Amino acid sequence: MNSSDEDAASGSLLENLAEFRYELRKFLHFSEGIAIEAGLQPQQHQLLLQVAGAPAGTVVHIAYIAERLGVRHNSAVELVDRCVAEGLLARAADATDKRRAILTLKRKGHNVLNRLSADHAEELHSAAPRLTRALLQVQRHNSAAQKLETR
Question: Of the CATH numbers 1.10.10.10, 3.30.230.30, 2.40.160.40, 3.40.50.150, which one belongs to the domain with range 3-150?
Fold first, then answer.
């Protein structure tokens, strides 16, 4: 691949990545806004979603939440503490490991999460074609670049 081909491919990739990031950010902005309207901080909404959406058989504890949210353990503890204090989550000692606390949603947490999830599903239905198109453009670019490299 010569220099002008690389520049064109790079420019196209940057445009595609920028478009995908823009569409993704629009959805995240929507998500953060309706969480706040519902009386939650966006990270509280994400916490509730991870507790409720954990795969069957998964024990949801602080380390699991920290991993899923991409935060430090102490930040997850603070977030859980706020949700427990607001009546959104329950925390109980793990019967097999007393050092761990198992997290479950309380009725209030279920109610707010159900409202938010319906709104998110509707927004994703609307945003899916734009997100998919942008992601496919990135994939196409990558496929084309790989074909050029193998020549």
Answer: 1.10.10.10
